[in-house]
Amino acid sequence: MESNLYLGLVHHPIYDKRGEVVATAVTNFDIHDIARCARTFGLKGFYIITPLESQIQLVQRIIHHWAEGPGAVYNPTRKESLSLVRVSRTIEEVSREISDLWQRRVKRVATGASHYPKSIGFGTLRELLEDRNTPFLILFGTGWGLTHEVKDSSDYVLAPIEGVGYNHLSVRSAVAIILDRLLGDRISSSE
Amino acid sequence: MESNLYLGLVHHPIYDKRGEVVATAVTNFDIHDIARCARTFGLKGFYIITPLESQIQLVQRIIHHWAEGPGAVYNPTRKESLSLVRVSRTIEEVSREISDLWQRRVKRVATGASHYPKSIGFGTLRELLEDRNTPFLILFGTGWGLTHEVKDSSDYVLAPIEGVGYNHLSVRSAVAIILDRLLGDRISSSE
Q: What is the predicted ipTM?
């Protein structure tokens, strides 16, 4: 079945350590790990969101290397996962692109490590995703996380992953866990 | 409650792309991402397993930097996660160390991306972990995965994570998903 879920990795606007709104640099490991997760769970697309021209070019070079350059021969499974990757300047631009494609407004879901008013649980989002006519864009922040403005302007904010008195997962790990909770087929693997 | 689960990241013996048994280099991102996951899910320890002296020293330098050096001041949450990290030369050495500590033989669980005879499901391993008097060591392979010898000599082999016709997750993502399936508290977060 065709997926209605897209993922956005946001490099701006996000907070830095001091709570200031900044643009982070793109991390090579983020692209590969998240693309492989997105492919594993059958996502429809993975957007790297950054307004910085140098970073946009960097991502395009990485995609080219693995999709058409020497990497495609060395490791064909990377080609398969990176075919999901797109670059976009803003969350708005991604939203418009998806909404245009589906002829229906995309619903945005923000994620984060802390509790937020009116956040929804994983079970609720699983159910929402069952509406296959509506596209969803789940947003992950780099650095110290998505800004309050991004959360407030999203349709939903997802509950955080609860740890044992510690919630400092890398964005790569958070993506893996959240996609598994939303889409992982527990029936086939739980015994 | 005190955890009875330890994690081992194996750099030898594992397969390379051509199926030959090799020792891989330690990856900085593996240490950090997996240590943060291990801390999030309350694991008892995280062993980097490598026989290479240069790699052992590298890991020790990284731990020192974040636990006592400049990193401890810059990012205290890294100190907390890296306090779980140990280095060991072989799987046997880790097993002996844990068994001695618990005065009980550690049970080894191998993981992998492919199906293996007599593998157990996630639900079964969750139940096994309920025996709090027995320590468990879950092993993850780098490169192209743990050797058959490692799997055959383990007490259990865990079922793979099932993707949509693609199972090429990074070891970092596999660790995150598997720890969540084994230890994630779905009750508090599923609604």
A: 0.94
Residues B1-51 pLDDT 10s: 789 999 999 999 999 999 999 999 999 999 999 999 999 999 999 999 999
pLDDT value of position A75: 83
* Angle (nearest 5°) at CA A31 between B166 and B179: 60
More confident residue, B186 or B152: B152
Expressed in angstroms, the distance from the first to the final Cα of chain A is: 24
Mind telling me how many Å the CA of A177 is from chain B's nearest CA? 5
Give the pLDDT confidence of A79-122 residue by residue, as tens digits.
Answer: 889 999 999 999 999 999 999 999 999 999 999 999 898 899 99
Chain-chain contact of A40 with B159 (C-beta, under 8 angstroms): no
Q: Side chain identity at B86, as an amino acid letter? A: R
Residue A93's φ and ψ, nearest 5 degrees, are -60, -45
Query: How much is the pLDDT for B66?
Result: 87
What gap in Å lies between CA A109 and CA B11, rounded to an integer?
38
Query: Are A170 and B124 inside 8 Å of each other by CB?
Result: no
Is B122 within 8 Å of chain A by CB?
yes
- Expressed in angstroms, the distance from the first to the final Cα of chain B is 24
Rounded-to-integer distance, Cα A20 and Cα A37, Å: 30
Q: For residue A6, list its beta bridge partners.
A: A45, A137
Of A39, A124, A175, the CB nearest to B191: A124
CA-closest candidate to residue B143, choices B8, B19, B7:
B19
Spell out which residues of chain A touch residue B124, defining contact as CB-CB under 8 Å.
191
Whole-angstrom distance, CA of residue B82 vs CA of residue A106: 40
In the DSSP assignment, the letter for residue A42 is T
Element (H, E) at A97: helix A91-102
Q: Checking DSSP bridges between strand B136-141 and strand A14-15, what pairing results, if any?
A: unpaired
Euclidean distance between CA atoms A80 and A67, whole angstroms = 8
In the CATH scheme, what is the code of domain A5-189? Answer: 3.40.1280.10
A188 near B CB under 8 A: yes
The b-or-e profile of A45-56 (16+ CB within 10 A means b, else e) is bbbbbbeeeebb
Distance separating alpha carbons of residues A189 and B127, to the nearest angstrom:
14
